[in-house]
Design brief:
mainly alpha
Length: 72
């Protein structure tokens, strides 16, 4: 049989668990930073959308006014 199969699994030490915890915390920090960046991008896109909507509504109003004058 292979020695790998016969070898006992290595027990994790306190240092192993500390390293795992540090990795998890670092990943949580990275995800939180990414979430904040995504949220800020979403807010920027919402504001940009509002500007576009306002311009579109203004253009539509001007077109409607011109159509009323022409059909007048």
């Amino acid at each position: 049989m292979s020695e790998t199969l016969l070898a006992k699994p290595r027990r994790k030490t306190v240092a192993d668990y500390e390293a795992i915890a540090a990795q998890l915390l670092a990943e949580m920090d990275r995800l939180e930073k990414q979430m904040d960046e995504d949220r800020a991008e979403g807010e920027r896109l919402k504001a940009q959308t509002q500007v576009i909507k306002a311009r579109t509504n203004n253009t539509l109003s001007r077109i409607e006014e011109q159509l009323q004058r022409l059909s007048g």
